Amino acid sequence: MKLDFLKKVAVKLERKNNAVFTYPVKKQKEYLDKLKEPYNDVDRSYCQYCCQMQFNGRVMTILLNVLSLPLLVYYYMKKTCLTVRQEKYDAVFFSEGIPEHVIPDSLREEFAAWLTVGVHGEYFSKKDRKYFKHLIKKYPLSWHFLLKCLIKIRFYSYEINIHSPKAIIVCGEYSFTSSVLTDYCAKNDVLHINVMHGEKLFFMRDSFFRFDRCYVWDEHYVKLFTSLKASESQFIIELPPSLKFSETMKRNIEFDYTYYLASESEAVLQKIAEVLEALKNKGYRISLRPHPRYSDKQQVIKYFSAVNIEDVSVLSIEESIMRTGHVVSLSSTVLNQALHNSIPIVIDNVSNPENYKKLGELGYICLNKEHETLSQLIKRVS
User: Which class for 117: exposed (0-12), middle (13-18), buried (19 or more C-beta within 10 A)?
Assistant: First the structure.
């Protein structure tokens, strides 16, 4: 329950702030330049933590730390017992609800036995306690930082002690715990590997991180992450099945245009609804896919009753893309997925023109790919 509460708070903060668009790139770069080059992985994590707290502001950061202190004490004192050692796995994938097809084929083939973990077990050994005391000594007053690191260490310790993996695979470049966990894994002779799973813009939430390996989709992302001071030596470029679909998947177009939502405000949703309804009135088949994490279900139903609304729990993202003639969004990962599968894309420059104008400064890769803007589409069909 405590972890669920923290996750809900994090999601609400992210939807409210939408800091990737609201926090100026210039200000981010100035703050990054103020931070000294980290001298080890623990320092990398703390630098990333400091960057993320900039988005929250001083008052919210203090509040997060105050709220984190009792939870920190609770998780430090919480007793755990290790069950009998279970079957050994070469690789453990912490999915966090992310499908396994984000894992590149070469990585999948490297390790024979895989385990996907959705619900985390916990363990905290004497060795772990000694390691964590080192973090407390270094950052005694950064309780939110310590709490998140402690929770993740407990998760990792359980899998390492139960399954003895050679590698732990995550989608966690956004987490300020990532570099600490790379250090922790190294002390347990385990590789810590990250796989890219979604679109990336210039956003210092994703700064300073280091894994033993980090799989990305394009050289563009190597340059983007290194500009955010991530360690340069970790990157491997490879497209996963989630980006380049299987050739066995066939196109069966049921809709002319499908709009893919992200974390839009209610005002922006209204504008999107107006555009989609206008397209429908011109005879086009229109569908809408809510974001599984950020979309407000009640708002979606309220504003998009005139078009088809996809059930994300039933229809996979791949099935959705393969059944539409055109993919429409502002900067969703789905635009990149569509391009890699030869499906035309439309970038929305209408519903939130201010954010669209910022995409160039944020280093959005699809602006340099073949596309049509939503305003061009509206003009063309008028």
Answer: middle
pLDDT score for 7: 56
- CATH of 255-381 among 3.40.50.150, 3.40.50.2000, 3.40.47.10, 2.102.10.10: 3.40.50.2000
Residues 196 and 156: their CA atoms lie apart, in Å, by 20
Per the CB < 8 A criterion, the answer to whether 117 and 193 are in contact is no
| Residues of the chain below pLDDT 70 | 1-18, 84-85
Structure tokens at 240: 């996963």
d(CA 3, CA 84): 25
Q: Helix (H, G, I), strand (E, B), or coil: what is residue 362?
A: coil
H helices present in the chain, as ranges:
2-17, 19-22, 25-34, 41-77, 105-110, 126-138, 143-163, 178-186, 219-227, 266-281, 297-303, 317-322, 333-339, 353-358, 374-381
Tokens of 127: 């060795």
Q: Where are the domains of the chain?
A: 2-237, 255-381
DSSP codes joined into one string, 223-283:
HHHHHTT--GGGEEE---TTTS--TT------EEEEEE--S--HHHHHHHHHHHHHHHHTT
Residue 100: phi and psi, rounded to 5, are: -65, -20
pTM: 0.91
Concatenated DSSP letters of 31-77? HHHHSPPPSSHHHHHHHHHHHHHHHHHHHHHHHHHHHHHHHHHHHHH
For 40, the token pair is 């080890």
Quote the Cα angle for 283-341-247, to 5°.
115
